[in-house]
Amino acid sequence: MLRRNRTLRASAGLTALAAVSALTLTACGAGAQGGSGGGTKVGLITKTDTNPFFVKMKEGAERAAKENGVELVSAAGKFDGDNAGQVTAIENMVNSGVKGILITPNDSKAIVPALEKARAKGVLVIALDSPTQPQDATDALFATDNVKAGELIGRYAKAAMAGRQAKIATLDLAPGVAVGAQRHQGFLKGFGIAEGDPSVVCMQDTGGDQAKGQTAMENCLQKAPDVNVVYTINEPAALGAHTALKAKGLDKKVLVVSVDGGCTGTKAVKEGKIAATSQQYPLQMASRGVKAVADFAKGGTKASGYTDTGVTLITDAAQPGVEAEDTAYGLEKCWG
């Protein structure tokens, strides 16, 4: 899910301030997105409002709000990594009287103090997609098992290599983001190697961005032109990698695997640009989260612990011993 750059310098102060201000207006200005709700408000704070994954998540939350008779108030980071903006949104939502907050944290550690303040005021806090660090900084987590998502594509890549020596490039997310670390660790586990294994010849951060994914792949090809396996944090990064590989005439020779299962990414699997992807389900995360807050408002029962919202390996080139569905299935379930 995942997604991201978090460079913070004094010279960017005005930009950050503008981003926070913009998010504040979004959070305060979001109108009722559900039914009458009997006064019950549910807050949804996503990493951004442009990524198709989070667009689908918001759609799921809007639908669930109508079904459960609550009012949805939404906000989003101005950019990936916008922790300050998410903190402002939390404060605004608490002040507006929300009963619960659903959040996909931009920074899994830095967001914790703001969430603790919200919980201290009786607000139910549920993380979606990405856990906080520590995970128990929220009441509950509704998310893909990101380790499993990485493990599935790792096992697939290992099987597809059929005993050939792997030269692996990992196109990761960004430091400090739990979802990126979990997918990376899962991939290594699935491939049967440990961190620091010599078969990993290049590691680059992409922020989950297509253009940065292309640049990262170009850098890896300069460092290790014999790369034959590419792990990517998400499908935008994978498509960026494909562009770089195609420019060198390597797109048919290098195995690219990814995570997300958006419609664009699933079509890329069908077209052969990505060999396999682990599909996750953002609508499920949001709809279950909204229902949990509605139930809390009605009966006081708090959701707790981790709820796995599912993950499926999608490929049209299945490998022995690796459970998968084809792209026809993936296109029925995709988002974006």
From TrEMBL:
Residues 1-32 form the signal peptide. The keyword Oxidoreductase does not apply. It is found in: Cell envelope. Residues 42-299 form the Periplasmic binding protein domain. InterPro entries: Peripla_BP_I, SBP_2_dom. Its main location: other. Keywords: Signal. Belongs to the bacterial solute-binding protein 2 family. This is Sugar ABC transporter substrate-binding protein. It comes from Streptomyces roseolus. The lineage of its organism: Bacteria, Bacillati, Actinomycetota, Actinomycetes, Kitasatosporales.
